[in-house]
Structures are given as C-alpha cells and as structure tokens.
Amino acid sequence: MTMSVEQLWSLPETALVGAYTEARRRYTEKKFERDTLRARLEWMRAKLFVNTSGGVTERRMRLTCRRNWRARARRCAR
After folding, report:
1. pLDDT band at 36 (very low <50, low <70, confident <90, very high)
2. Model confidence pLDDT, tens digit, residues 6-30
3. pTM confidence score
4. How far apart (Å, rounded) are the C-alpha atoms in residues 3 and 74?
5. Vertex 11: Cα angle to 5 and 13 (nearest 5)
6. Do 27 and 43 touch, CB atoms closer than 8 A?
C-alpha cells in the first residue's frame, strides 16, 4: 500500500493510524525475514567450522584465507 502525501493528508485519523500500523507490520516482517536468513547462514557457518578437521587455529586461518580470497575476487570482478 503506497500512498502519496496528499492522500495520507486527506485521510481521517483512524485510517491514518491503520495505514501506519500496516506499514510498520510490513517493515517488521521484512526485517524478520532478513534477520532469520542471516541467523541461518551464521548457524551453517558455525556448524561447518565445528565439523571441519584440524585445530582451532587451522580453522580460523582457513576462514581468513577464504574471506580474503572472496574479497579479492569481488574487487577483481568490478
């Protein structure tokens, strides 16, 4: 529901509160979806980190190298 400022200005107060509530609800749902996806990805990374072989130092080095490689690949793609 996208409304122009003029339409919102002409709405009665009860309808304006309803429009505000609807906009907040949609914003919250969108943010929840994003945060849920982000948490799921973090959980998968943590699970992968725990299940890989080697000590903690080796695992961290592997992750650091992988992140550096991704960053370089992104820079080169531009």
Report:
1. confident
2. 887 888 888 888 888 898 999 988 8
3. 0.44
4. 38
5. 120
6. no
